[in-house]
Amino acid sequence: MSQPPVIMVVGMAGSGKTTFMQRLNAHLHQKKEPPYIVNLDPAVKNVPFDRHIDIRDSVNYKQVMKQYNLGPNGGIMTCLNLFATKIDQVMGILEKRAPTISRVLVDTPGQIECFVWSASGAIVTDALASAFPTVLAYIIDTPRTTSTSTFMSNMLYACSILYKTKLPMIIVFNKTDAQDALFAKEWMTDFEAFQAALRKEEEKEDGSNSGYMGSLMNSMSLMLDEFYNHLDVVSVSSMTGAGIDEFFKAVDSKVEEYKKDYLPELEKARKEREAKKMANQNEQLDRLMADMNVASESSWKKPKKDIKVPASEPEIDTLSDAADSDSDEIMEGEADVEDDTNDGRMGNPSLTDRYEQALHKEGQEDAHGESFMRYLNAPR
Ligand SMILES: Nc1nc2c(ncn2[C@@H]2O[C@H](COP(=O)(O)OP(=O)(O)OP(=O)(O)O)[C@@H](O)[C@H]2O)c(=O)[nH]1
Fold first, then answer.
1. Pairwise CA distance, residues 304 & 374, whole Å
2. Name one Pfam family in it (predicted).
């Protein structure tokens, strides 16, 4: 099966992610290799290119903020959480389209922490990375990175993203039409050059960068040296299109790295997660069975003769048949599961079998525990 690489574009607000995506899109269209585009930024107003999957089609950022009384970042995170509940559908679509597309481009919110450090961001990233060779493109606003302290802050940020996602990363120095990125490349390859720039800034700033800050920067630059070894660095101008070919070459080399280094790690982690989940399910099943035995000996199994069951007793109906079309229903569905599993009506042997079947099925089907929900929601 053909597996198009997924390029996830991350970067600070205003670094030029959207313009970069637009440039990649135009470049690939020109080469007659149209990409598949996913927008994960719920707050973006105008996207200057066609998207195939857009988070804004499934969640309304403004309404989410209003409904849950949230600020801008909370709103983005909640939108991502709601979107993450649909990740199975997204993966289904991508897998269906995979044979006909050259690359998948994913735009992410400028508030990086909302995506990279949120549970939903991790779910989306893991889902993509476990199905397709996935590469991160970290976009840097070059003209704003010319001082040693902003350069270092940006690199530490990139390092923490690499540490969190554990995916191959390409550092993209953008806006090189306005500022050449040679200085940054030199700082990344020549430790002495960075030290010299540090000293120069110390002198210029009348020693404000000296003392504690100076020695901290020195130590961090030594630590970052190791981080730089794992990166590919390219300079581009999303405005003019310069450097885009080199970027795609870097993507190809990172895809090889993904296959060699990251995929085995991901497989290992997935197997460990599954084994843990299976053990957990077996434990839950044992407990459920024990509960059911107790329940079967109770009055639910056979009503005592002197207890009259009223003719209007409601039928056992675990959940409403409504499909989970919106967030409220998703939440309500989850609450209902708990209610029903505790209501003591488990003495019914056919229900016992069905719950057991569903729990096993859950382990086989998906990683997000939705099959059990589907089972409960399914009309019968
Ligand atoms: N000179 C120059 N300007 C650029 C380049 N790329 C982007 N810009 C400008 O940088 C600004 C921000 O670009 P966007 O693409 O909106 O940045 P973004 O990272 O998507 O911004 P958020 O969505 O807010 O996170 C815009 O004014 C762009 O025109 C470039 O290569 N050269």
1. 35
2. ATP_bind_1
- Pocket of ligand 1 contains residue 177 by CB under 6 Å: yes
pLDDT digits (tens, 9 = 90+) for 285-327: 888 878 777 655 554 554 445 444 444 443 333 223 333 444 4
- Cα 41 to averaged position of ligand 1 atoms, centre (Å): 15
Distance 137 CA to ligand 1 centre (A): 15
CATH topology of domain 6-179+231-269: Rossmann fold (3.40.50)
- Which residue has the CA at smallest separation from atom 2 of ligand 1? 175
Query: What are the sequence ranges of the domains in the chain?
Result: 6-179+231-269
Residue 237 CA, closest ligand 1 atom number: 31
* ipTM of the complex as predicted: 0.97
Could you tell me which residues come within 8 angstroms of residue 334 by beta carbon, excluding any fewer than 6 positions away? 373
CA of 280 to the centre of ligand 1 (A): 47
Count other C-beta atoms under 10 Å from residue 252's C-beta.
Answer: 12
252-274 pLDDT, tens digit per residue, is: 999 998 988 888 887 887 788 78
DSSP 3-state assignment of 20? helix
End-to-end distance of the chain based on CA atoms, in angstroms?
36
